């Protein structure tokens, strides 16, 4: 990972994924104001966790809560 990449930590912090898009689409859960974040994990899989379920660790790092 390069220094400018934003990363997503798994819930337990053991896995780091690369954030490809912080606002890939609005969350579709009723009443949720969050955005779905496109994350690519080391195994190549993509997930879209909601920003409302993540916390900021630092300016380049989020973690799934």
Can I get a quick summary?
With 65 residues, the chain is mainly β. It has no helices and six strands.
Verbal overview:
The protein is mainly beta and 65 residues long. The chain is 0% helix and 48% strand. It has a six-stranded mixed sheet, with no helix packed on it. It is globular and about 35 Å long. The protein starts with 6 loop residues before the first strand and ends with a strand.
Feature tags:
65 residues, mainly beta, six-stranded mixed sheet, 6 strands, 0% helix
Distance between the termini: 22 Å
Structural class: mainly beta
- The low-confidence runs, each spanning 5 or more residues with pLDDT under 50, are none
Overall mean pLDDT: 94
Number of strands: 6
Biggest sheet descriptor = 6 strands, mixed
Q: Supply Rg.
A: 11 Å
Secondary-structure topology with pairs:
Blueprint: E1 7-9, E2 16-26, E3 35-40, E4 46-47, E5 54-58, E6 61-64
Parallel strand pairs: 1-6
Antiparallel strand pairs: 1-2, 2-3, 3-4, 5-6
